[in-house]
Records
---
Amino acid sequence: MTTLEAVTLAAVAWSVGALAWAARSAWRRPSPRAAAAPAGTALSGIVYAFGAGMSPRAKESASHHPLVYVAGLVYHAGVLSGGAALVAHLAGAALPASIALGLGAAMTLGATAGLVLLARRRSNPLLQAISAPDDYASNAIVDAWLASGALAMFTWSVTPFLVLTIVLALYAPLGKIRHCVFFFLARGLFGTRLGRRGVVAHLHGSRS
């Protein structure tokens, strides 16, 4: 393992640890207890929240902006591909050419989708009004990381990919990129409350 790879691994380990600590702190924070008796099960709500509740039809903003929803899916698919490529490299695994090209293509599409979303945020007055510097920085860092990962898969130097991995790992727990963890916590809490209130059956019926 080279020095750069060792530093990259250390940065990723720090990032994972910091995110885990933040998630644990949030989970242990007291929340209001429901006064009413449960009318359903938490499990039914969690299944809905991570299943049918993820459909664009169940999300008002997504249903009104289907192309943005698709761009978000492509963006996150690129991030997952970048993570897979990083793990393979740090593990010393030699990827078959077809898989490397597939990961590179996914990261290229992901970076493109990220740039489209960044341009939309910058050009839309409403999005500008609710955007903070972190919104732009997080997007730009991930876009650059995906682009460098794609180049690494296409037999270019892996050095930029590792350097940007370090930048991404150090920044992730500090900005909105930490939603990679808090999304699941928030979605789980949302589903738990829906299930306990017994409204999941109503939500399913409202879409029929």
Note: Residues 3-21+38-206 form a domain with the Fumarate Reductase Cytochrome B subunit fold (CATH 1.20.950).
---
Amino acid sequence: MTNRYVFLYASVMVIIVAVVLSGAATLLRPRQERNMRMEKMQNILAAIDIPAARGEAEELFARYVTTAKVVNYQGEEVEGDAFEIDLQEENRKQLEDRNLPVFIAEVEDDTFYIVAVRGAGLWGPIWGYIGLESDLRTIISANFDHASETPGLGAEISDRGFEEQFAGKRIFDDEGNFRPIRVVKGGAPEGDPHAVDAISGGTITSNGVEDMIRNGLEAYRPYFEKIKSS
């Protein structure tokens, strides 16, 4: 067997494998994109405490999420598809150039607002959705996820036990001042409506969640104030 034959054989095999992989990726892309859409719907619904299996996410999303809009830094509605907003890209822009997604849900005659937040954890990006009651100050639920936080530590931001702490917390005080949620190392003071317990051993990720919520909700504040005054 000559070196030339080995080289040609290897080259042909590489080309065949590349073609097969490329074809498989092309065929699987629609399914992958659909799965990503379903997961996003599940996460948005989780922010208003509606559990949804992937197979029923689309139906429940259409049933409860009645309005999706895009707003700018002044809280004004602008053109765009809220579901397609990439918050990672938006956060790279100056605040005055950002577009922010808002989802409005109607559940048993109650109106809820779901907003998206994104930030940085210890090893990579973290993100989530926060659901607010119609008063736009009280959190009904929250949903968080991450790209690469440490299992058993920072990765616990996506555990339901951590997320459930946010239910009933408030982002404005009784005087109407903006008071984003603090994630407190060692435990939040009992009865504090603006604080939750940090993740044990996940200090940097916990700080990232606090920063993400503060910066994310701050960007939405003009929209909240505009709705409350209307």
Note: The chain has a mean pLDDT of 90.
---
Amino acid sequence: MKKAGMIVAVEMAALKRKYGEPAEVYHDGVYTVMRYEVGRYELFVLSSGAGEIAAAAGTQYLITKYGVEMILNYGLVGALTEEISEKKICIVKAVCHYPFDLSEIDHVEKGRYTEFPDRYIETSRELREEALRIYPNLPEVMCASGDRFVGNEADKRALHEEFGADICEMEAAGIILTCVRNNIPVMSVKMVSDSVHGGAEEFYRTFEEASDVCVDVLDHILKGE
């Protein structure tokens, strides 16, 4: 069987509702990794906790320890525009780590890593195309990612204006950057849980339903349906 990894920040209940108890559970020091068999894959799932550093470390751990051949991620995000409305599922086309800033020393735009041609780091085109074959109406979006929950409408609109992003969240940059540097395909499916007008209250109200939809999309990818 092929090996796939899945990084989840905090929305683990949806995965357990979908797949039940794992075939095996590994307690590796600070990490607990669950192994499932889904379609043609052994799926190794790690709950990283919130934030870029934790997500990047968990991603590298799955790649190094378990030899996964791709990384999948799902989670909930905030909308930065009216178009990406509440409860709308989307695929991350590319991510910008917007707090990252070398502009004063390397004379590049804020959010850009100098190894890339611009400040957006792209996910796997092949995996996106596979998802769109199954779900042709899913929008591909630009994601602003940073270690902060953004609930304020003015802050959301400012992120959109400065970075051209459609959504914001706290882990995708760490996951995607790590995968690209390891030459590992990566796909991130997100569900908008709070609109451009909403914040924490709206996020928690839609948490479970939104997580379930994300898992369903990735399940189809793993099973090749």
Note: DSSP finds eight helices and ten strands in the chain.
